[in-house]
UniProtKB/TrEMBL annotation:
Residues 111-319 form the Aminoacyl-transfer RNA synthetases class-II family profile domain. It catalyses: tRNA(Phe) + L-phenylalanine + ATP = L-phenylalanyl-tRNA(Phe) + AMP + diphosphate + H(+). GO terms for cellular component: cytoplasm. It is found in: Cytoplasm. PROSITE patterns: AA_TRNA_LIGASE_II (PS50862). Its cofactor is Mg(2+). One of its GO terms (biological process) is phenylalanyl-tRNA aminoacylation. This is Phenylalanine--tRNA ligase alpha subunit. One of its GO terms (molecular function) is transferase activity. Mg(2+) binds at E255. The gene is pheS. It comes from Ureibacillus xyleni.
Length: 345
């Protein structure tokens, strides 16, 4: 019987070693250790042995059973690891394949122009102020020296919601609101935002566009401060060699008022189609804040003075990027927008 056991053990171990997958191993387990297996049979036959032999044989059967079980488990572990390894190899990724290109977006040209102007003025100590696009007649016109019936209102016809509520025609109401809130304190702000006019859309006009206005109020603020500020702006937007010139103009909220031209960035001043052969391009309107506007907001126009200017973001972007139709900015045509690639920044 001892001989028989040893032989069974050898057989079982050899089969375990030879098994190449988990199913074969399971078959070996059932065949040798199962209820109908030979080892169980031997245990059942123990009753026929003499009482002296029984403990010895019992111990031997247990040892064999343990050996076979341990071998079996060790082999299962190995085969399982192999299976995982094979799966990993089969599913491995070929890192040498070229990747799929992700299409990155870029900032809208108007956003870029506005952010560039904001950066410049923030670096000069200005704050950015914003206000409502649906505005009261009072802040859009009256507080800016444009009482009801003033002829200059005709130049800024807009969309009315009620008699007293309208879509703002410029960002100047933000200036009026800021002056009111500051109660006589000095101010240095720029106000970027959407504005609206009752205009028919064409290549250079839009019923909605972006404006950036600036306002400085303090002691001893003079025309020369305005000129220096606008000179810095022109150089930042169109290059260090640019110069500006001021021409007299009229706005109800400034006195004196000026139109500001910048020397042509394309021809350098000799004359070309961009500057209509004049060497100069009109870029913005500006002036010294009208005493009436200061007084209406509670400022003492004898003690404090200020300047203001207003820029059209579209106008700057059209000149800077050579865009020939203002409507391109709003139609969201990807062929247009993708030309302003982020690497240019
Ligand atoms: Zn030119």
């Amino acid at each position: 019987m001892e001989q028989q056991l040893k032989q069974l053990e050898q057989e079982a171990l050899a089969k375990i070693e030879a098994a190449s997958n988990l199913k074969e191993l399971n078959d070996v387990r059932v065949a040798y250790l199962g209820k109908k297996g030979p080892i169980t049979d031997l245990l059942k036959g123990m009753g026929k042995l003499s009482p002296e032999e029984r403990p010895k044989m019992g111990a031997l059967v247990n040892t064999v059973r343990e050996n076979v079980t341990n071998q079996l488990e060790a082999r299962i572990t190995i085969l399982e690891e192999q299976a995982i390894q094979e799966q990993l190899e089969k599913e491995s990724i070929d890192v040498t394949l070229p990747g799929r290109k992700i299409r990155t977006g870029n900032r809208h040209p108007l956003t870029r122009v506005i952010e560039e102007i904001e950066d410049l003025f923030l670096s000069m100590g200005y704050e950015i102020a914003e206000g409502p696009e649906v505005e009261k007649d009072y802040y859009n016109f009256e507080a800016l020296n444009l009482p009801k019936g003033h002829p200059a209102r005709d130049m800024q016809d807009t969309f009315y919601i009620t008699e007293e509520t309208l879509l703002r025609t410029h960002t100047s109401p933000v200036q009026a609101r800021t002056m009111e809130a500051k109660k006589g304190e000095p101010i240095r702000i720029i106000c970027p935002g959407k504005v609206f006019r009752r205009d028919n859309d064409d290549a250079t006009h839009s019923h909605q566009f972006m404006q950036i206005e600036g306002l400085v109020i303090g002691e001893n603020i003079r025309m020369s401060d305005l000129k220096g500020t606008l000179d810095a702006l022109a150089k930042r937007m169109f290059g260090e060699e640019r110069e500006i010139r001021l021409r007299p103009s009229f706005f109800p909220f400034t006195e004196p008022s000026v139109e500001v031209d910048v020397s042509c960035h394309k021809c350098g001043g000799t004359g070309c189609n961009v500057c209509k052969q004049t060497g100069w391009i009109e870029i913005l309107g500006a002036g010294m804040v009208h005493p009436n506007v200061l007084e209406m907001a509670g400022y003492d126009s004898k003690k404090l003075s200020g300047f203001a200017f207003g820029i059209g973001a579209e106008r700057i972007a059209m000149l800077k990027y050579g865009v020939d139709d203002i409507r391109h900015f709003y139609t969201n045509d990807i062929r247009f927008l993708s030309q302003f690639h982020r690497t240019e920044e």
